[in-house]
Amino acid sequence: GAGVSQSPSNKVTEKGKDVELRCDPISGHTALYWYRQSLGQGLEFLIYFQGNSAPDKSGLPSDRFSAERTGGSVSTLTIQRTQQEDSAVYLCASSLGPGQRNEQFFGPGTRLTVL
Amino acid sequence: EDQVTQSPEALRLQEGESSSLNCSYTVSGLRGLFWYRQDPGKGPEFLFTLYSAGEEKEKERLKATLTKKESFLHITAPKPEDSATYLCAVQAVGGGSNYKLTFGKGTLLTVNP
Question: Who's near B32: CB < 8 A, 6+ residues apart?
Answer without folding.
Answer: A102, B49, B50, B51, B90, B91
